[in-house]
Amino acid sequence: AQSVAQPEDQVNVAEGNPLTVKCTYSVSGNPYLFWYVQYPNRGLQFLLKYITGDNLVKGSYGFEAEFNKSQTSFHLKKPSALVSDSALYFCAVSDYNTDKLIFGTGTRLQVFP
Amino acid sequence: NAGVTQTPKFQVLKTGQSMTLQCAQDMNHNSMYWYRQDPGMGLRLIYYSASEGTTDKGEVPNGYNVSRLNKREFSLRLESAAPSQTSVYFCASSDQTGFTRHFGDGTRLSIL
């Protein structure tokens, strides 16, 4: 069975500093990996995905994520955080059956001015 | 450019009442999903429909029923609401590959 873990409930970072939101996964076979962001009282919005190819994936709003097969990780990164990046971030994983996408419990990112 | 539309946005029910949550998408997507979001639990899949006329159980289907009325609409029904079903419910759709979900803004449901 597949699973995904986001070990940090909250990440705090100063504006302008780099940010990392961690995600590790377990899946049989090749993973399909996703990051979504949720702003208050809104649905989740797609940020980026890894299906195959380059381990470094670039997505919306300047975010990127690195697929590391040996460490079974897919950490979300941004070189310079903005206050407007403050939101709830979800990592998700599936195997070939993408209907059964499993979401992590979410990490709240707080960017301070 | 509506995307995924959910109605109602808020609802308060008494235990034992029934109600249907509505969802419609205008992106011509084949697959549609219902999730619930609870604090500390992330999103959990209730039911999904890979195509018009088909539905399948997800991780937490007990107490719910669904109907894929047509390609656009996918409704979620609570026949006899329980306090444990207090949650935020999200509908989503995805394209043929199923890779990217498009979410509605949710229905906040409280059951007293």
Question: What features would you describe in this structure?
Answer:
The complex is a heterodimer of chains A (113) and B (112). By secondary structure, chain A is mainly beta. Chain A has no helices and twelve strands. Chain A has strands spanning 3-5, 10-14, 19-21, 24-26, 32-38, 44-50, 56-58, 64-68, 73-78, 87-94, 102-103, 107-112. Chain B is mainly β. Chain B has strands at 4-7, 10-13, 19-25, 31-38, 42-49, 56-57, 64-68, 74-78, 87-94, 101-103, 107-111. In chain B, strands 2, 4, 5, 6, 9, 10 and 11 form a seven-stranded mixed β-sheet that branches. A four-stranded antiparallel β-sheet of chain B has the order 1-3-8-7, with no helix packed on it. In chain B, strand 5 (42-49) and strand 6 (56-57) form a beta hairpin. The N and C termini of chain B lie far apart (36 Å). Chains A and B meet through strand 5 and strand 6 of A and strand 4, strand 5, strand 9 and strand 10 of B.
The radius of gyration of chain B is 13 Å
Globally, the shape of chain A reads: globular
Largest sheet of chain A: 6 strands, mixed
Element-by-element helix/strand order of chain A: EEEEEEEEEEEE
* Helix coverage percent of chain A: under 10%
Looking at the chains present, what oligomeric state does this protein adopt?
heterodimer
Structural class of chain A: mainly beta
Order of H and E elements of chain B? EEEEEEEEEEE
Largest sheet of chain B: 7 strands, mixed
Helical amount of chain B = under 10%
